[in-house]
Design brief:
5 strands; alpha/beta; globular; 7 helices; 126 residues; Rossmann fold
Length: 126
C-alpha cells in the first residue's frame, strides 16, 4: 500500500501523465491529513477547495488521521533528522504517517525523506 506525498498531487495538477498513471494504477490510495491540509492551504478560493475535495473523493483516497503514535514518531524524526538533514515538521508528519501505517511513501523529494531509516520510500521521477 502506498501513501502519496503532497508533491505527487502537485505533479498531477500540473498535468504530469506519469504522476496520473502512478495514481491510477494504485489500488489503495492514501494520503496523510498533513498532505490534505497542505493541498487545501494552496487553494486560492472555495472553488479550488472543492476541486481538491472532489479529486480526493473521485480517486477514492483515504485520508489518514493524525494519531498519538504518528505525532510521537514525527517528534522523534524532528529530534533525529532536523539538524542533520533539515527535516521539516510537515514532512516528519507525512513520513511518520507512512511508517506507522506500514506503507510506502511515494515522493519526488528524496532529500526530504532519504535520511529516515525506518521509512519505506519510493522515488517518483517526473
Amino acid at each position: 500500500m502506498m501513501i502519496f506525498d503532497t508533491d505527487i498531487f502537485i505533479w498531477v495538477q500540473r498535468g504530469n501523465e506519469k504522476a496520473v498513471r502512478l495514481m491510477e494504477k494504485s489500488r489503495n490510495r492514501h494520503l496523510s491529513i498533513q498532505t490534505y491540509m497542505e493541498l487545501l492551504q494552496c487553494a486560492m478560493n472555495k472553488t479550488q477547495h472543492k476541486d481538491v475535495r472532489d479529486f480526493i473523493m473521485s480517486y477514492g483516497f483515504t485520508v489518514l488521521p493524525l494519531t498519538e503514535n504518528i505525532g510521537h514518531r514525527a517528534a522523534i524524526y524532528i529530534e533525529e533528522y532536523t539538524i542533520s538533514s533539515g527535516l521539516r515538521s510537515g514532512d516528519a508528519v507525512i513520513a511518520a504517517t507512512a511508517a506507522e501505517n506500514n506503507m510506502t511513501l511515494v515522493s519526488s523529494n528524496a532529500k526530504h525523506f532519504k535520511a529516515i531509516k525506518d521509512l519505506k520510500f519510493k522515488l517518483f521521477k517526473p
